[in-house]
Amino acid sequence: MDSQTSKSYMAPLKNKLEEGTFIVGSIGAGYVGAITSIILAARQPNLKIIVCDVMQEQINKWNEGRFPFYEPDLEKYYDIAVNVNKNITFTVDVGNCIDQSDALFICVNTPPKVDSDAVLGKEADMTYFDAAIRNISNYGNPEKHKILIEKSTVPVGTYKRINSLLGEKIQNPEACFTIVNMPEFLAEGLAVQRLLNPDRIVIGTTEDLNGQEAFEVIKGLYTNTETLFLKLRTPSSELAKLFINGMLAQRVTSMNSMTYLCEKFGGSIQEVQRMTGSDPRIGPLWLQASPGFGGSCFEKDILSLIYIFESEGQQAQALYWKALLNMNDAQKHRILDMIISEFPEPESTTLTLFGFAFKKNTSDTRLTAIAYIANGLIHKGYHVKIHDPKVTERSFHFEMEVQGFNIVEKTNYEFCGSDYRKAVSGSSAIIIGTEWDEYNELNYNELITLMDGDKKNLYDFRSYVDVQQIQQAGFSKVFKLGN
Ligand SMILES: NC(=O)c1ccc[n+]([C@@H]2O[C@H](COP(=O)([O-])OP(=O)(O)OC[C@H]3O[C@@H](n4cnc5c(N)ncnc54)[C@H](O)[C@@H]3O)[C@@H](O)[C@H]2O)c1
Ligand SMILES: O=c1ccn([C@@H]2O[C@H](COP(=O)(O)OP(=O)(O)O[C@H]3O[C@H](CO)[C@@H](O)[C@H](O)[C@H]3O)[C@@H](O)[C@H]2O)c(=O)[nH]1
After folding, report:
1. Which active-site residues does the annotation give?
2. What digits encode the pLDDT tens for the residues 325-336?
3. Residue nearest to atom 33 of ligand 1 (CA)
4. pLDDT band with cut points at 50, 70 and 90 for residue 1
5. pLDDT at 392 over 60
6. What are the pocket residues of ligand 2 if the criterion is a CB atom closer than 6 Å to any ligand atom?
7. CATH architecture entry for 11-232
8. Distance of alpha carbon 476 from alpha carbon 92, whole angstroms
9. Which superfamily, per CATH, for 343-480?
10. Which residues bind NAD(+) (predicted)?
């Protein structure tokens, strides 16, 4: 590692921790920045937390308790932090947040670059990240040494990038800032529970004395959290974050690839899952079949990993990870084709999509697999109705546009929000794309009376409903993915 030194800058920060005057700043009040800060503030009354963002609307929402997204149990911890501990503030004054803080979590978005010239992968767009670092470089002061924490998911070598950006303005960046990587593993919908009980907290630092002591200072921010603290070299933790998402996506995709064979040969994907997951070398988690993985992280991070291999001239490895994304697309195509093949008269057929969020217990729609299905059905000419208990119409339209699905001129679809009656009336099929618990608890005897058509089908592309119970309502067919 570069910049190895036997000097430590941590003494004043250790004192502040001991005195209870330590201030943590978060740059970015999105999913990661806001949720991690709220939980930290609720857990550690000894810390003061400042959360800043460039978006006034986002900050207004947090200040007024109008959450910008749905995340189970977040309200309870927001209330503890804001009203009981009173140790968190939300602000658009990014400069003041940087100036005040002793440790800064950088939690800004790092999406795939739109105009990336790579063939297989996509470079992470570091525009927002770099802007945050340039802002931080205005506050370099050796008398007020700060720890900069890469919490955003970033390409390997970002710690060097930060150092050289800081160097544009400051002569001796290492005297003013210690840079560490601290990847975030929260999964949306489970974020609060995962942050209260993390499997591990990983800190990537230099291997010198300052790195070791920075690790101890960061550990000191989590005195009320029992977990394993892992200290790695910075490039290892930067790389492992991307790799872990690739591995998780690979597990899901491997299961999804087996759904066709189970259907064809009379197997059951749940049984394959049970047998596979009971092998201790594999384990049971992240093996649930689905219409394809979505979310803001898996695809983005795999594209970033592919880009890194590609730019290193490692074509075979790039192609290996690219195949995973192709497989995920193949699952979406297969599902769309399956629906279309069963309803040959689109113009006179209404179909209902149950769920648009990329998974249950979140209002987040980023890269949801259902957008592809919705677009395919709308463009084929079906009348498509979309239901989701938490997604807003605005998010639906925004996500369709972001994924490049142009439905602006189309009139053959309706976003129904959480209105079941509107969503199923006149419909020939209910298509479950998101595994919301309530879809498995509905009174299908009632819903079916609102439906119409020669046949009334139900498709469960999350493979989780009780087929026998739903079948009793009188559906012509209840299809469960991988069965
Ligand atoms: N969402 C997740 O579940 C998750 C989990 C782990 C890691 N991550 C990673 O964390 C990072 C953030 O993800 P997210 O989902 O929270 O994104 P997000 O889009 O929800 O939030 C990012 C926020 O940063 C703000 N921002 C951008 N530039 C800024 C600047 N210069 N100064 C201040 N604020 C700025 C934006 O306005 C936005 O509100 C990404 O790198 C992502 O890959 C996300
Ligand atoms: O068994 C499974 C598990 C997940 N999925 C799908 O995979 C996608 C991603 O799910 P999940 O991993 O639960 O959600 P994210 O919030 O995207 O979290 C992932 O990405 C985050 C951002 O990097 C990491 O912090 C988390 O550890 C990592 O799980 C979603 O569409 C899920 O429906 C399945 O189809 N089957």
Report:
1. 297
2. 999 999 999 999
3. 53
4. very low
5. yes
6. 153, 184-188, 245, 248, 252, 286-288, 290, 293-295, 297-298, 358-359
7. 3-Layer(aba) Sandwich (3.40)
8. 55
9. NAD(P)-binding Rossmann-like Domain (3.40.50.720)
10. 53, 110, 153, 188, 300, 366
